[in-house]
Amino acid sequence: MEIENTFKQWKKQCLNKMDLSKKGSVDEDIAHVVRALNDAENYFTTSSCSGRIILIDGVSDCQDVQKQNCSWLFVTHQQCQKTDVVSGLERSCGDAVFKFEPFVLHVQCRRLEDAQLLHNVAINSGFRNSGITVGKKGKIITAVRSTHCLEVPLSQKGQILVSEDYIEFLVEVANQKMVENLRRIERFHECLQSALQSEGSQCKNTDVTQEKSVYRRRRKKALDRPADSCQDSKETTASEEEDGLDYGVNLFT
User: Fold this and answer.
1) Are the CB atoms for 211 and 133 separated by under 8 Å?
2) Residue 52 forms beta bridges with which residues?
3) pLDDT at position 173
4) Alpha helix positions (H), the chain
């Protein structure tokens, strides 16, 4: 019970806090996926990105590749054009790198079984790099990730190293990856909905089976009761059957 309350508290805090991402909101192409998970009792999302094509300018001769040492020359969550990349490269004064980064989603799960269910959905949807981690405080996180990335250096110290024809080729490859990425997102959403509905159906069936089992046991006890234990066998039997029928009607309404 304590674990459940803690999970509910974590979920409430996470969903109520400000979005600190660079964009400041959930990407449009995965809004329905995030909504489905956050509406589910056993899940909530902690971070997400629908996938993006970016051109970043890193600091030359710097071994640190963290984001704060880079400037963003161009970014889009949709397909891009060659002119977008060329225009961004013109502003480069460091080491520009062209990237495609696929859909990524981090989801906190109430139980390990919930995490395993989500992990299976991710793997079956084509997100083969997905995994599960358990933190020291008991937080269970499923990371939905793919491997179809792209990362190509285009300039060094502000000097462009490739031709426009090669840039056009890279843009075409990145756009193809974006199309495949969106297809996998839709497959993930469909598999997720099916899994959540199936899980809910199984829970309902289990509850009904348990209730029927209790009813049968009580009926059996009433039927196996010795005759000499009844003060008036006819009246008591009639009374027991009426009570049993009342119990059955109340149970299944």
Assistant:
1) no
2) 101
3) 98
4) 2-16, 31-39, 82-89, 112-124, 164-224, 233-252
